Amino acid sequence: MKKLFLVAALALLPLSGFAGEANVKVNGMVCGFCTSKLEKSFKAKDEVNVVHVDLDKKNVHLVFKDQKDLSDDEIKKIITEAGYNVVKVER
Amino acid sequence: MRIYLFTLIFAVIGFVPRLVVAHPTSSQGTLSLIGEHSEDMSHYDVIYSLKYWLGLGARMHQQRYLLGKTDVALGTIGFLLYRSNGEEHQGNVYLVGGAGNAWFKDLDNNTLNDDFAYSIGIQADYETRKIYTLAKYENIKTKDDVISEYYELRAGFAPFVAGYYDLNAWFILQATMDRAESESIDLAPVIRLFYKNVLTEFGSTIDGNFIFNFMVHY
After folding, report:
1. A76 contacts in B (CB within 8 Å)?
2. Are residues A75 and A89 in contact, defined by beta-carbon separation less than 8 angstroms?
3. Fewer Cβ in 10 A, N or C end of chain B?
4. Chain A contact for B164, CB < 8 A?
5. Which tens digits make up the pLDDT trace of B92-139?
6. A10 CB contacts (<8 Å, ≥6 apart)?
7. Strands A85-90 and B131-142, how do they pair?
């Protein structure tokens, strides 16, 4: 019986709505006015649910939609095209 | 919608932003509306940033004199020559240029003559979340005339360090000179406020000329 529950739980896991996140450390983000386009660019991506820019921590926090994700390279491309430097992407 | 309405209102009443507040390029895909309005000149720019280091745009410039005025229409290009992105700072050096036409007019708006016009300039800025500095030179010329030869220095500080989702405030002192008009330097304290993609500045020169700058990134 326990095995049956375990198998059912594993089978249902992909349907449970996994939402991934990423923290991106960015250099050059000192001005909120100039950074606003960065937030807009991420919000325009279909994969992204929430964008939070933290100038204190020099960090962009991304929450992805269920079952969706942006690769590190895609994240770096968006930030580089906005004129900033990516220090690291943490998952 | 409110931002568009806000921009339209300011455009209609003529209090449009001054180029000095602007980076000649912005993040890729950004449309910037900027300009200037003062007693002796008006200045309007629309810039689209194809890349964060390359902006193409159009400018309308009007210089007013006692006995007439000069209208200038230019296609412009802004190029980010150098950028330093640090953990606590950003520094930039830009080259700007333009080419178009100038119309020399009398007080009744009759064109006396016109000529090919061009502009060239350089701008450097450095800022952290607490300090801001800028140096700029730009001229607008025809073959025979100097329409504008503009110098500007700015230094400012933030009285408090605001977050991205807060209203940001800056106190700035600016010194400007247009040698095409006079050799005198205009000093002006300016207050800058911005929230996300909307920026405004207001202040006054020591001799009482009001300054109002406004800029929006779309």
Report:
1. none
2. yes
3. N
4. yes
5. 999 999 999 999 999 998 999 999 999 999 999 999 999 999 999 999
6. none
7. unpaired
Using DSSP, state whether B86 is helix, strand or coil. coil
Residues of chain B with pLDDT under 70: 1-22
Report the complex ipTM. 0.80
Query: Which of B23, B53, B90 shows the shortest C-beta gap to A30?
Result: B90
Per CB-CB distance under 8 Å, the chain A contacts of B193 are none
Interface of A with B in 8-27 (CB under 8 A): 27
Q: Name which of A63, A65, A57 is nearest A91 in CA terms.
A: A63
Average pLDDT value for chain B: 87
Tell me the two tokens of residue A7. Answer: 């198998």
Kindly identify which residue of chain B lies nearest to residue A82, measuring between CA atoms. Answer: B27
Record: contact B197-A33, CB cut-off 8 A = yes
Give the relative orientation of helices A32-43 and A72-81 as an angle to the nearest 10 degrees.
Answer: 140
The pLDDT score that the predictor gives to residue B9 is: 42
Percent residues over pLDDT 90 in chain B? 61
Q: Distance (Å, rounded) from C-alpha B34 to C-alpha B49?
A: 13
A59 touches chain B (CB under 8 A): no
Contact B197 A55 (CB under 8 A): no
* Interface residue B130 vs chain A (CB under 8 A): no
Q: Is B184 on the interface with A (CB under 8 A)?
A: no
pLDDT at A81: 92
Question: By the 8 A CB rule, do B129 and B135 touch?
Answer: no
Q: Which residue of B has its CA nearest to A40?
A: B218
Give the residue from A47, A40, A43 showing the smallest Cα distance to A20: A47
Residue B169 φ/ψ region, left for φ over 0, alpha for ψ in the -120 to 50 degree band, beta for the rest = beta
Residue among B60, B65, B146 at smallest CA distance from B98: B60
